[in-house]
């Protein structure tokens, strides 16, 4: 899907770097993923690193990372929106790392987080993803009705 319209040839550089870190330096792919999630590097680096970790190194995009104040599990998509990590958000969306559809709880929570941050780039990627799935209108209606309540 390539939501950020990045050059796909760049993937090989990051795949090689990760193979080196995980294979030769015995780093845990999940730990590397958490570092990428918290990274403030360029979106393209975060995108390729997280995408390769998800696709090639068995990182679970649905894992519960922590609990919020209400005791609910925080998953990578919500965490990436909280941290305003555009690259990781795009990679997780492309891997459909959320349960349900764009109108269900996980996706809508991510959209509300992006909306509260007033992060146009994050909202744009979430909307582009919904549009490519022909679900943009549903997503926007769900988001607007949640904000009105």
Binned strand content: under 5%
Strand order of the largest sheet: 1-2
- Provide the gyration radius in Å: 15 Å
Poorly predicted regions: none
Q: What structural class results from the helix and strand content?
A: mainly alpha
Q: Can you give the mean pLDDT? A: 94
Work out the helix count. Answer: 8
**In which range does the helix fraction lie?**
55-70%
SSE order in H/E notation? HHHEEHHHHH
- What is the β-strand count? 2
Q: Oligomerization state of this entry?
A: single chain
Query: What's the shape?
Result: globular
Distance, first to last CA: 33 Å
Largest sheet: 2 strands, antiparallel
Describe the structure.
With about 150 residues, the chain is mostly helical. The chain contains 8 helices and 2 strands; from the N terminus they run αααββααααα. The chain has helices at about 10-25, 30-35, 45-55, 75-80, 85-95, 105-115, 120-130, 135-149; strands at about 65, 75. It has a two-stranded antiparallel sheet. Helix 4 packs parallel to helix 6 and helix 5 (about 85-95) runs parallel beside helix 7. The mean pLDDT is about 95.
Tags for this model:
149 residues; mainly alpha; 61% helix; 3% strand
Topology:
Layout: H1 11-24, H2 29-37, H3 43-56, E1 66-67, E2 73-74, H4 76-82, H5 86-94, H6 105-116, H7 120-132, H8 136-148
Antiparallel strand pairs: 1-2
Helix pairs in contact: 1-3, 2-3, 3-5, 4-5, 4-6, 5-7, 7-8
In short:
This protein is mostly helical. It has helices at residues 11-24, 29-37, 43-56, 76-82, 86-94, 105-116, 120-132, 136-148, and strands spanning 66-67, 73-74.
